From TrEMBL:
<dbReference type="Pfam" id="PF06745">
    <property type="entry name" value="ATPase"/>
</dbReference>
<protein>
    <submittedName>
        <fullName>KaiC protein</fullName>
    </submittedName>
</protein>
<feature type="domain" description="KaiC-like">
    <location>
        <begin position="2"/>
        <end position="171"/>
    </location>
</feature>
<dbReference type="InterPro" id="IPR014774">
    <property type="entry name" value="KaiC-like_dom"/>
</dbReference>
<dbReference type="InterPro" id="IPR027417">
    <property type="entry name" value="P-loop_NTPase"/>
</dbReference>
Length: 178
């Protein structure tokens, strides 16, 4: 599913799969009617935590000596699936493995989908918290980045506007003085 969506947007990732990129689509673990081993082994049982463990092992498999960049979109799926505590344990596990091999883990959650307790717990566990905001102003869409937490340094106290164009994401670094 991820591969076909990326191809639809014009990204040719197929030559890189297995070399630089390993894509793990979590939806394959929850599709109804799947007859693969993981579905039969875990989804039919009442204990769902092994699914999270299996995905974590798949993410970190053979990566002990290489830098790895992991994107988990979205943590909301896992929180609804197994609850907050196993997700926090998984984040801590990814963080420890990331410290060992200098890897980067990007974990996405949509603000407002869960209670403030869940959001604050996740903010405490993560090293860096970046908030992306979208606002409609008259006929324009204004996008901003706000860095809430940045491990090892003081986080900036202002919003950074950014634009999405054909070249990708551009930060607007011009200071406006009124």
């Amino acid at each position: 599913m991820i591969n076909s969506n990326m191809a639809r947007f014009g990204m040719n990732i197929y030559p890189h799969i297995g070399k630089n990129i390993n894509i793990i689509d979590v939806h394959k673990y929850r599709e109804q009617g799947r007859e693969d081993e993981l579905y039969n082994k875990y989804l039919k049982d009442t204990d769902i935590n092994p699914i999270l463990e299996e995905m974590l092992s798949e993410i970190t498999e053979n990566e002990s000596d290489k830098k790895c960049r992991t994107i988990v979109y979205s943590l909301s799926y896992f929180i609804r699936l197994v609850g907050l505590d196993p997700v926090v344990e998984a984040i801590e596990s990814l963080s420890k493995k990331g410290d060992i091999n200098k890897s980067v883990n990007f974990l996405h959650i949509t603000k407002g989908m869960h209670g403030t307790t869940v959001e604050n717990t996740l903010k405490q566990v993560c090293d860096t918290v970046i908030e992306l905001q979208v606002e409609e102003r008259s006929f324009n869409v204004q996008r901003t980045i706000f860095i809430r937490k940045l491990y090892g340094s003081i986080a900036p106290d202002n919003f950074l506007p950014f634009y999405i164009g054909k070249e990708g994401i551009k930060l607007d670094t011009i200071k406006r003085i009124l």
